[in-house]
UniProtKB/TrEMBL annotation:
It comes from Jeotgalibacillus alimentarius. PANTHER family: PIRIN, PIRIN-RELATED. Belongs to the pirin family. This is Pirin. Binds 1 Fe cation per subunit. Fe cation binds at residues 60, 62, 104, 106. The lineage of its organism: Bacteria, Bacillati, Bacillota, Bacilli, Bacillales. Coiled coil: none annotated.
């Protein structure tokens, strides 16, 4: 497809994240993707911006979806009840497929104040009971494409000629875009991907309407609901030095229910998940 024929993305909606001051140990939280609007974000469900101390996200269960956790600052300790243990630093990402029965903890190391972005990614009905798995994507393993006036680090999908290492059951793109002041970049993703970005530093103009956005703003992108994997482009202009995380994926287009730590196709399946956890079917607690 020629550049002239590409679908040109615009900003469908945008908002600034507001924060709740929760006190100790979950110090502060904001919703990048608010749960009450989850039907707009398919295949994504919600995304949280969290600051927390140790004791906030100790042993807990999940079923029926995937999580993608990006470490902004501090050290994040992961423990699961299958013997997994790791520590992630700034710029690292952990992917989890909760599948049938995940039980894990995500904690700050020692006295760190940890800052993370956690995205919930849906699963189609037939994959909700798949085997639980985890994958760490360390910053040095996520390839970087140099672009005019900046760079694109690719955690998932194929963007700017490089492929990210994340192995999501539902294929997505996840990139961190860094631009110098005055740079203009055209981000290429399939036209049928629903997508959004979160500005983590600086000021930009984005989309065909050149919508001005700055730190802690979210931009929800237009897309072709009946489109194909043909290329589309999003134009981003950096008014100052800028950085943003951009995610995209093909909508699943299935009904689902998100309730507590579970995402299932209906409330009967949510109740089954609750009963299974209470009956010990998720296994032993996730502790060292």
């Amino acid at each position: 497809m020629t550049e002239e024929n590409r679908f040109k993305r615009d900003i469908k909606d945008h908002w600034r994240v507001s924060y709740n001051q929760n006190g100790y140990p979950h110090v502060q939280q904001g919703w990048i993707l608010p749960p009450e609007r989850m039907k707009e974000f398919d295949p994504f469900i919600l995304m949280a911006d969290d600051w927390f101390k140790r004791g906030t996200f100790s042993d807990h269960p999940h079923r029926g979806f995937q999580t993608i956790t990006y470490v902004v600052d501090g050290r994040l300790e992961h423990i699961d009840n299958h013997g997994g243990h790791s520590v992630l630093d700034a710029g690292d990402v952990q992917y989890m497929n909760a599948g049938w029965a995940a039980r894990h903890g995500e904690e700050a190391v020692d006295d760190d104040l940890i800052h993370t972005f956690q995205l919930w990614l849906n699963l189609p009905h037939e994959l909700r009971t798949t085997t639980t798995s985890y994958q760490n994507v360390y910053i040095e393993d996520a390839p970087v494409a140099e672009v005019d006036g900046g760079s694109v680090r690719v955690y998932s999908g194929e963007v700017a000629g490089v492929k990210g290492p994340m192995e999501s059951l539902v294929p997505i793109t996840m990139t961190e875009i860094r631009l110098k002041e005055g740079a203009e970049y055209k981000h290429i993703i399939p036209e049928n991907h629903n997508g959004f970005f979160y500005v983590t530093a600086g000021e930009i103009e984005a989309g065909e309407s050149a919508v001005p956005l700055s730190k802690t703003d979210v931009g929800l992108l237009t897309y072709k609901e009946d489109g194909t994997e043909a290329e589309s482009e999003l134009t981003i202009r950096a008014k100052t030095r800028a950085r943003l995380l951009l995610y995209s994926g093909v909508p699943i287009k299935e009904e689902y229910v998100a309730h507590g730590p579970f995402v299932m196709s209906n409330m009967d399946e949510i109740r089954d998940a609750m009963r299974d956890f209470q009956a010990g079917k998720f296994g032993k607690p996730a502790i060292k």
